[in-house]
Automatic annotation (TrEMBL):
HAMAP family: GTPase_EngB. NCBIfam families: GTPase_YsxC (TIGR03598), small_GTP (TIGR00231). Residues 22-197 form the EngB-type G domain. Belongs to the TRAFAC class TrmE-Era-EngA-EngB-Septin-like GTPase superfamily. EngB GTPase family. InterPro entries: G_ENGB_dom, GTP-bd, GTP-bd_ribosome_bio_YsxC, P-loop_NTPase, Small_GTP-bd. Keywords: Cell cycle, Cell division, GTP-binding, Magnesium, Metal-binding, Nucleotide-binding, Septation. The gene is yihA. This is Probable GTP-binding protein EngB. It comes from Ohtaekwangia kribbensis.
């Protein structure tokens, strides 16, 4: 799929204020700083359509981007960022949980996982929780430019094993780097296929 048009539509903290759920929607979810906003810029070939920062906690609302006038790409706040005050952190949790459970046009959520780390509890519990809600999901490994191929293979293998402790089969997995544009075609093909269903 070619992306010919990407527009920022809205930024809200409440799922009920999001645009009418009249188009298929794909959302990026994951720990703070994992690279959600960067991946949106990589996919849309823009520099700062989605705001990024080296400091975790940059995205604090639900951000809708309309792609090719036909589907939404959504940037969300991160989960599991300990330095944000407890109340705000719980708010993030609630916003994401409401979004995942109430957004009726969700075609797939992409759970972004930092490829440099061993399996993180927060990622696994999010994947298990979202899976239990019946939301289609795929796992996207980020920042693969930061490690060697054998390290990447080891981490992906460990992650698969951790997921299989709770899942009967593995969800789709895509390897990416926003820095090197790795995985762009694969991610867009995946979305294209989902749009045809
Ligand atoms: P929050 O909005 O805070 O939840 O973070 P986020 O998940 O949106 O992360 P963001 O895209 O803002 O990126 C966080 C940091 O990681 C930035 O400094 C990015 O430049 C860096 N980063 C993101 N993707 C990549 C990547 O593929 N490779 C490398 N090397 N750095 C990356
Ligand atoms: Mg962000």
């Amino acid at each position: 799929m070619k992306i010919t048009k990407s527009e920022f539509i809205s930024s809200y903290a409440d799922v009920h204020k999001c645009p009418a759920p009249d188009k298929p929607e794909f959302a990026f979810i994951g720990r703070s700083n994992v690279g959600k906003s960067s991946l949106i810029n990589m996919l849309t070939q823009t520099k700062d359509l989605a705001k990024t920062s080296s400091t975790p906690g940059k995205t604090q609302t639900i951000n809708h981007f309309l792609i090719n006038e036909t589907w939404y790409l959504v940037d969300l706040p991160g989960y599991g960022y300990a330095s944000v005050s407890k109340t705000i952190r719980e708010g993030f949790g609630q916003m994401i949980e409401d979004y995942v459970q109430k957004r009726e046009n969700l075609s797939c959520i992409f759970v972004l996982v930092d490829s440099r780390l061993e399996p993180q509890k927060s990622d696994l519990s999010f994947i298990n929780w979202a899976g239990s809600k019946g939301v289609p999901l795929a796992i996207v490994f980020t920042k693969v430019d930061k490690l060697k191929l054998n390290e990447l293979q080891r981490n992906v293998q460990q992650f698969k094993k951790a997921v299989l402790a709770d899942w009967e089969e593995l969800p789709p997995m895509i390897i990416t780097s926003s820095e090197k544009k790795t995985g762009r075609d694969e991610l867009l093909d995946f979305i294209d296929d989902a749009l045809k269903v």
